[in-house]
């Protein structure tokens, strides 16, 4: 479904909208406190971006190191191409007779797992990993007060990009996630576990994202949710219109890359933004989400160029580009369209436009174009 | 100083008063303003809508049209940001066109904050996203507004949040866009201002269009028009560069 269609019912719930605005404002306030008084914040962001960029560039090497380290500690690594394969592997690793608890994460949501939080008596658990430290084969999960120390079967699941080369890199990333996401200098509880777990590493479209040099930086994401907290679109629509993948600005750049830009959701998500830039300003690993959205918009349009019957928008945009390619054509178009628009105006304002622009005048007027353009005025005054 | 003005396609067709105000203001400050008649569009709309080859052709054209000019001013933060941040991405050869947004030109290049204007209104200022984040204009527009005689400046709550325009966004995601502008207008009304000011006629079309539909009584006015108001009536404005002052435009 297109983002705009999925957004309509969400926008129609003013109480939910107010709740999201309030929660986001509180999150923004906490974040501003956590990074505002921290003099090294910009340097830390630079370091974090560099760590993530380097990790993605040599991802294969780090994954091999991780696999070797996990197996050396007695664990085992499984590779899943997609969500269905990940679920199959996880099922086969869990004992049949006890229900498995779940520590959820974006990845466990992505593959559609649900279950209760683990308690002291849990016999088996699936854990969405925060990070995986390659050099020691260590699983890292934030905000787990009870730790990962319970006996029994533990299956960790992570995206292939969640690997971190070493502990010094992890230290930088944890500070960034804590300050940008939770708005605290360091999350009170970070649990780690080395050895004695099975690890499922999920691709599910990530290698496709890695192959696009203009889109791969989206995989730098450290899942802090700061971009959603500042996004004016997300605050109005909530997570649902972003579809089954990640929500918010990062989802708008990841989902079209993973699912392609032809279907309605993937084709509309890159346009579900005003390009206001608030997300890029707060991203702790400096993902330039607006630039990436513009890149993906180009891919959406390119995918439509081959259609035998061009859509109305494409005819309009090509026509405008042709007109603007020459000042005489441009002025001719300007004069003709302005004259036509003035016919629709009453008392200097247009309240109803036909066609593509009808969506504008549903809720907004347009001023009637003046009789004299700037260039006409300039010519007369010389 | 000899300053070339890039009025933008949107301003040329829909808001010529903004371009006229820029000319009046700069001539009042003693500068020579030139208009390259071959100018059309910077390509911003095509670039952000995903029509990249078309945008690059327009960017090349604009770069050629303004070749040889040392100082170019535009009353649009979006168009200035397109030239500065998007052009180098389109083609590294397109980097470096010396385009300044109006408040940058005044404060940074010409060193003026008091232009001698008078504007007896309560004004609130909406920092547009491109002026705030892409250009980093900071408080330059506010410093210019504070120096305007009889102007009462009212702080806009949550000023840094987008008004919901976003070019094609306003049409492609019209419901979300309208939800955003409704919240923005509520904040504007809280200020008690009778004028909302910004550095971009595109965002002002959106704000003004919604204010007009609501018959709110608050007007959306470009910074250039405020700065060009009542010139000559107030005390003498600084004339940097020793250029002879010309008479105000008719």
From TrEMBL, chain A:
Domain 4Fe-4S ferredoxin-type: 211-242
Pfam families: Fer4_8
BP-aspect Gene Ontology terms: lactate metabolic process
Record carries keyword Iron: yes
Superkingdom assignment: Bacteria
PROSITE patterns: 4FE4S_FER_1, 4FE4S_FER_2
N-terminal signal peptide: none
GO terms, molecular function: iron-sulfur cluster binding; metal ion binding
Segments of this protein annotated with the region Disordered: 1-31
UniProt KW keywords: Iron, Iron-sulfur, Metal-binding
Family annotation (InterPro entries): 4Fe4S_Fe-S-bd (IPR017896), 4Fe4S_Fe_S_CS (IPR017900), FTHF_cligase-like_sf (IPR024185), Helical_ferredxn (IPR009051), LutB/LldF (IPR004452), NagB/RpiA_transferase-like (IPR037171)
Gene3D superfamilies, sorted: Alpha-helical ferredoxin, NagB/RpiA/CoA transferase-like
Protein name per UniProt: 4Fe-4S ferredoxin-type domain-containing protein
Organism of provenance: Actinoallomurus iriomotensis
Phylogenetic placement of the source organism: Bacteria, Bacillati, Actinomycetota, Actinomycetes, Streptosporangiales
UniProtKB/TrEMBL annotation, chain B:
Cysteine-rich domain span: 3-83, 123-207
Gene Ontology molecular function, alphabetical: oxidoreductase activity
Origin superkingdom: Bacteria
InterPro entries found in the cross-reference section: Cys_rich_dom (IPR004017)
Record-level GO cellular component terms: cytosol
Protein name: Fe-S oxidoreductase
Lineage: Bacteria, Bacillati, Actinomycetota, Actinomycetes, Streptosporangiales
